[in-house]
Design goal:
About 40% of the residues lie in helices and about 25% in strands. By secondary structure, the protein is α/β, with parallel strands linked by helices. The protein has 2 domains: about 1-110 and about 300-359, Rossmann fold (3-Layer(aba) Sandwich); about 120-295, RecF/RecN/SMC, N-terminal domain (Glutathione S-transferase Yfyf (Class Pi), Chain A, domain 2), CATH 1.20.1050. α4 (about 145-165) crosses α8 (about 240-245) and α5 crosses α7 (about 230-240). The two termini are about 20 Å apart. The structure holds adenosine-5'-triphosphate and magnesium ion.
Length: about 350
């Protein structure tokens, strides 16, 4: 995957921009609040996913402007493509000028991985973040996966709403049946996608973490299933009484987790700050490797403010790992880029991207 040009207007704090990045490393330096992350966010939106900052679509539009318009030309699957995005109340996506059914349809056209300090939450926070990581990663490879997830969540909402009434109307218990059928049918698909994906992730994850930690530590990732095996339908029936009391569904993929352990100890509870950061980074790099092996495309790497938080050994490991990729790397301190042998350096100032120098 290679970006040729990116242009935008009315997007965040960025000045109207036409940008032809280097094929390899692009370093974007600048003081705080100048628009560095905004630029990465603009590129990221072409994966079809929502903003990695969790922003609502409307927040992407520059204050006081009616809409934001972005355009990306890139080569994917050896074909040059032009994608467009406009944001008014919502995002609308175009490919070669033709409107797509939804922005998510861009998935599979353009692929990228993003890593930012907020990704520490992958290790630090609860299971929901790790499920989301798996689901997003799978969606980039299997465009029909989001529809399965949606069908599952719809049935989940319906089962929970019956559960809420069940306390007062025990006679409606049979209403749970069709929703549990649907939960089991979709849930098993989700489980299979996730476990298969995790197998792929594990082909490189331990190696990457081992390298990042200077060959000192071992990382394992295990899928924790709330309903044993594939017997989700039976587990749902068995948990009816308890679930009625909770007015929530206590088993199923929406309660599963990804257990991350460093040398046999849970990273969430025992990992140091630097270890947690390295685990999160290893997950993202392994995600990119899976994407690469499955699609034959090397994703674009968007690394937001990552280098400053890694010691020189870890920095070198990352830079070496992504040596052949197109990379967009932001940092505040230009001295961080001295170690980069090639590529272009730009400065972001007040939303304007100042021309880079070839190194
Ligand atoms: N919709 C918007 N319209 C105009 N300005 C916006 C909008 N959304 C965000 N901004 C502004 O963009 C500025 C730059 O944000 P950005 O996160 O890209 O900074 P940054 O260069 O990554 O800084 P840091 O080094 O602190 O991470 C912020 O000051 C913010 O107020
Ligand atoms: Mg930033």
């Amino acid at each position: 995957m290679r970006i040729h040009t990116f242009s935008c207007r009315g997007f965040r704090n960025l000045q109207p921009l036409e940008f032809s990045p280097d094929a390899g490393m692009n370093v974007i330096c600048g003081e705080n609040a100048q628009g560095k992350t905004n630029l990465l966010e603009g590129l990221w939106l072409f994966t079809g996913a929502k903003s990695f900052r969790g922003a609502k679509d409307g927040e992407l539009i520059r204050f006081g402007e009616p809409k934001a318009e972005l355009e990306l030309t890139f080569t994917g699957e050896e074909v040059e493509k032009t994608a467009g995005l406009t944001v008014e109340e919502r995002r609308v996506a175009f490919l070669h000028g033709k409107k797509l059914p939804s922005p998510a349809s861009l998935a599979g056209q353009f692929c990228a991985i993003v890593f930012s300090p907020a990704d520490l939450s992958l290790v630090r926070d609860g299971p929901a973040v790790r499920r989301r990581f798996l689901d997003l990663a799978i969606s980039q490879i299997y465009p029909n996966y989001p529809a399965i997830l949606r069908a599952y969540l719809r049935a989940l909402g319906q089962r929970n709403s019956v559960l809420r009434d069940l306390k007062y109307h025990p006679e409606i218990e049979a209403l749970l049946d069709p929703f549990e059928d649907e939960l089991a049918a979709q849930g098993i698909k989700i489980l299979r996608y996730r476990t298969r994906y995790l197998e792929r992730l594990r082909e490189t994850l331990p190696k990457i973490y081992h390298g990042l930690s200077g060959q000192r530590e071992t990382l394992t990732a295990e899928y924790l299933c709330s309903a044993e095996g594939e017997n989700l339908r039976a587990a749902l029936v068995a948990s009816r009484r308890q679930d009625c009391h909770l007015a929530a569904t206590s088993v199923g993929p929406h309660r599963d987790d990804l257990a991350l352990q460093i040398d046999g100890m849970p990273a969430r509870n025992y990992g140091s700050q630097g270890q947690k950061r390295s685990v999160a980074l290893a997950l993202k790099l392994a995600e990119a490797d899976v994407l690469r092996r499955m699609t034959g495309e090397t994703p674009v790497a968007l690394l937001d403010d990552v280098m400053s938080e890694l010691d020189p050994g870890r920095q070198d490991y990352v830079l070496n790992h992504i040596r052949d990729w197109q990379v967009f790397l932001t940092c505040c301190d230009p001295s961080n880029v001295v170690r980069l042998a090639q590529g272009a350096v730009y400065e972001m100032r007040g939303g304007a991207l100042l021309p880079g120098q070839k190194r």
